[in-house]
Amino acid sequence: MSTMTFGRAINAGLRRAMEHDPKVILMGEDIGKLGGVFRITEGLQKDFGEHRVLDTPLAESAIMGTAVGMAYRGYRPVVEIQFDGFIYPAFDQIVCQVAKLHYRTQGAVKMPITIRVPFGGGIGSPEHHSESPEAYFTHTSGLRVISVSNPQDAYTMIQQAIASDDPVLYFEPKRRYHARGEVDESVDLAATSMEDAHVVSPGSDVTLVTYGPLVPTARDAAIAASDDGLSVEVIDLRSLAPIDFATIEASVRKTGRLVITHEAAQSGGLGAEIAASITERCFNYLEHAPVRVTGFDIPYPYSKLEFHHLPDLDRILDGVDRVMGRPNSLSGLER
Amino acid sequence: MPLNDTASAGEDTLIQLLSPSGVRRENSDYDRWVADVDGPALQALYEDMVVVRRIDAEATALQRQGELALWPPLLGQEAAQIGSGRALREDDFVFSSYRENAVAYCRGVDFTDILRVWRGNASSGWDPFTINMATPQVIIGAQTLHATGYAMGIQNDGADSVAVTYFGDGATSQGDVNEAMVFAASYQAPVIFFCQNNHWAISEPVGLQAHVPIANRAPGFGIPSVRVDGNDVLACLAVTRQALNRARTGGGPSFIEAVTYRMGPHTTADDPTKYRDANELEDWAAKDPISRLATLLQSMGLMTDEFVAAVNTKAAEVAAKLRSGCIEMPEPEPMDVFKHVYSTPNSWLDRQQENYGRYLATFESDPAATEGSH
Fold first, then answer.
1. Which range is least confidently modeled, A4-8, A45-49, B8-12, B235-239?
2. Beta strands of chain A (E only): which ranges?
3. Who's near A276: CB < 8 A, 6+ residues apart?
4. Chain A closest CA to B303's CA: distance in Å?
5. What radius of gyration do chain A's Cα atoms show?
6. Inter-residue contact A29 to A58 (CB < 8 Å)
7. Looking at the DSSP assignment, which residues form a beta bridge with residue A78?
8. Strand blocks (E) in chain B
9. Which among A111, A121, A19, A17 has a CA at the least distance from the CA of A64?
10. Which of A152, A240, B114, B277 has the fewest CB atoms in 10 Å of its CB?
11. Rounded average pLDDT over A245-261
């Protein structure tokens, strides 16, 4: 067991995966000598060589498309998209090629590609640097989508993603890169499934579902709620596609109330999927309609306003009040 | 808006070893690449082109008869595809668009497999690794990146195979093709960009896509290029062999623009009479790739009755196999729709599959419903 930052944990996981399998190669802009704009790949080119850590030209579709060709040749590419907003030029290659080639070739061609995406806001960046595009990818069959929230998961799940024969989008909450935590480097990768959600803190009144950057915020909200006599169970999804509905379902059957929070815009987002699926599965257990606390349906705002857009502890508590039928910002409104 | 003609015409700039009238033209740069192509080898190229034209005609007929949903004909492009396809080694790997059926033929595809996608019976015709050719790509130009990435893999492996990607003139407008050339040049990847300039991207003429000959673009990326008569099978073979040799010996990528003509529609769904002049078709018919080789063979005394009969018999046999293979293709199983989305179980899909299985089972357990379905 050692203490390391989130970013260092990903680096350690990448290193372990590269040591374990010579077919693992890293590709991306500035990931070699610089070690990536967030230094996640720092030192890896020096230790593994330029043929395994490729500094690529600035062309996202090409990074993704050549990774497809590498996978055809038997490699396991790990692609870094420098910032969330830069994934859109690669969208076609991801949804039309990476996601579909296994299906299209009736299983003959595997696409074990891991796509690392630093995502989300809260670091005061300019436009295109703080987006939450995960729902575009959870909507696409053939892809697996995960988001990590702590150094241990960051370390474990990057290795699970690389080992997976399916393509995996690995969303890294960039505002948590410097958070520190305990990491057990001897963890047995096979012992946990990449699809399992985790109950971060147990509770009996409200189920609060989130992932990635908002997990610590949700945990803080649960602590604040407990001061108010409310017991909130916080679930970290970890896997966004597929979602481990069994874990949420079990929690909601116990609490009868569901709040979902994410940074991404509300409409068509993961909160909608979770609310609908849980309502279908345990309608008779619900004491209140599920509530979403999310980013607004706006382009990501300039940094001086981003903290209005991002759900924080108080907005989450307001959502908790709504499912509890307690006085809240929307009390008395019919919507 | 006037369209630029320099992208389409300019026969004088083309590498040509066989004139439209069937006369062998000497070329000090390229003759050595086809020095081994003797009479029987020329006859084999002729047979290939006749057979693939017959496959094309048969598949078009099958579409017209309602047996295929769609077919993209290659009529007119036989020389470009056979000339380049026959240059390849077994361990080379092809990433093509949907029109390279003659290349698939060269790779040894099972004839029926070519039709599976177009009949709607499978998402792909073949396992790419059995013939070292990816299944046809519909997204325009996307495959050029796959070839470049594959070539980078070859390079990492220290092998001397080559990745070859086929695309049309329209694809050169796509970002992916341009990005592929950037990457190929950056890494000096062993990849050949084989552009069949067939003059039409559905109804858009090449002059709309390019204001200079397409081959002129590649040197701007640092990739050597040639412009070859795409209706001259011998020249296509020669330039592809040269590019393969460059790639195998560490010389990096090459770009070949094979200037040819799509004599039919883009697919069986469009009608070229709506967008192009009949005279244009007539002009290109005079440059037909098969008849010019026939003339050469005739002058060599090789178009004997026996040879012509043997070729026609082979073509008829292949066409018959294609037709019976198409019509006898087994219907896919309903639950196959869920297969191969993921390599490993996925809880979302498993649930949908189970639920749909239960739904289908209700028809089996309800005799009235079963009767009603007939």
1. B8-12
2. 2-5, 24-28, 53-55, 76-80, 114-119, 144-147, 168-173, 180-183, 198-201, 206-210, 232-236, 239-241, 258-265, 291-295
3. none
4. 42
5. 20
6. yes
7. A26, A114
8. 93-95, 163-168, 191-197, 200-201, 204-205, 225-229, 254-259
9. A111
10. B277
11. 98
B199 in catalytic set: no
Helix B175-187 and helix B142-157: axis angle, to 10°?
20
DSSP A59-88: -HHHHHHHHHHHHHTT-EEEEEPSSGGGSG
Q: Which of A74, A108, A141 sits opposite B127 (nearest CB)?
A: A108
CA distance B343 to A327: 49
> What type of residue sits at position B243?
A
- Segment A25-31 shows an average pLDDT of 98
Annotate A85-105 with b (16+ C-beta within 10 A) or e (fewer): bbbbbbbbbbbbbbbbbbbbb
The span from the CA of A154 to the CA of A14, in Å, is 10
User: B14: which residues sit within 8 A by CB, 6+ positions away?
Assistant: B227, B228, B229, B235, B259
Phi, psi of B102 (to 5 degrees): -75, -30
Q: How many CB atoms lie within 10 A of CB B142?
A: 25
The question of ipTM being above 0.85 is answered as yes
Whether the per-residue pLDDT at A200 is higher than 60: the answer is yes
| pLDDT the model gives residue B374 | 45
Distance CA B320, CA B314 (A): 10
Query: Does residue A242 have a cis bond before it (omega within 30 degrees)?
Result: yes
Whether the per-residue pLDDT at A104 is higher than 90: the answer is: yes
**pTM of the predicted structure, to 2 decimals:** 0.95
Q: Provide the pLDDT for residue B123.
A: 85
In contact, B193 and B224? CB cutoff 8 Å: no
The answer to whether residue A129 is catalytic is yes
Nearest to A196 by CA among A221, A143, A160, A151: A160
Tokens of B187: 């890494």
Burial of B301 (0-12, 13-18, 19+ CB in 10 A): exposed
**How far apart are the C-alpha atoms of A237 and A179, rounded to whole Å?**
19
**Residue partners of B38: CB distance under 8 A and separation at least 6:** none
pLDDT of residue B2: 45
Q: Which of A61, A105, A164 sits opposite B128 (nearest CB)?
A: A105
Residues of chain B predicted below pLDDT 70: 1-12, 365-374
Q: Which one of B113, B137, B145, B335 makes the best mutation probe of the A interface by having the most chain A beta carbons within 10 Å?
A: B145
Q: Which of A66, A106, A244 sits opposite B152 (nearest CB)?
A: A66
